[in-house]
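Regression report. Comparing outputs from two consecutive submissions.

Submission 1:
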Amino acid sequence: MEKLNNIPVNRVFEGKPSEAFLEHNSNRLEQDDRYWLTDWDKKRRWDCEFPEFHQSEIDPNQTRTGHHLYDIVDAVLEQVDYKQYAKAGVKLSNATITNIKSGLIKYLAIWKWEDRNIHRPIERGKKYSYEVLSYVKADHALKFIKADGDHMRFPYPLPEEL
């Protein structure tokens, strides 16, 4: 089967954070030693792992890896890294770019918070909604990557999809 450059999903998912996610999130916050970030920025960053964590809990085809090379092993798409949508473009770290170029990451799952992509701090017992927009072939996304200040971004949707 030929794998497509873009696999649209456009589906909203809703869930409460599991105890496993809350423990994972708490550990990440505790270990985050980036002194230049505020506590709010750190919380927002680690809360953004909720969609990938939740997907691995509800989709039997997705398994979390537990390391930083990529987020998920998907039974069909192989190695997938979840990336949050932004109007300015989807941001990729240098490590992610390296992992795509080396073939470690096959697809990028593009997602956003359902309520205008605004972060709401994740708390025990509350429901959160996010939309998985699509799976973009990672090496294809790199064709459109551009510097944006200190960040590297690619536009989403990709230009040829408009």
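Submission 2:
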Amino acid sequence: MKRICVCLILIAMAAALVSCTKTNYAQTIAHNWDLVLPSSCEQVYGVSSDPGFHGDGERYHVFSCSDAEAMSTLLKWSETVIKDTNFLFNVVMELDIDESYLIKPGGYWRYAKSHQDGSKLIVLYSPEQQLLYVLEDFH
């Protein structure tokens, strides 16, 4: 009976540890950039470079965001048409991004932000695809 109790306690502790370390990347975006995504946004893809000593590197995430009204008021968007991805600094080029999750040419809402340390954020939302692309370059 003691062994069963010890095993159950160890399993419960392991499950708690796993759930604590599994962070929704939307929470990380909120922490790093003061950008709280609508609850309708669900992460569908994410890739990051190996972090440097200070946590620097590139990150690329895609969210499915079906609430167009919430998205329209989320940020001060500027409308842009993307013909190619050359302007997206080195994030797209540095990461091995699954081709099906690459930004496609078309109309987007665009938002950009940078920190004093040179870190950059680009957020692109496609109302047509209902996809939000978050590109980060940390220094």
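Expected: both submissions complete independently.
Actual: both completed, but the second showed a warning that disappeared on reload.
Relevant detail on submission 2: The beta strands are 41-48, 57-65, 78-82, 106-114, 120-126, 131-138.
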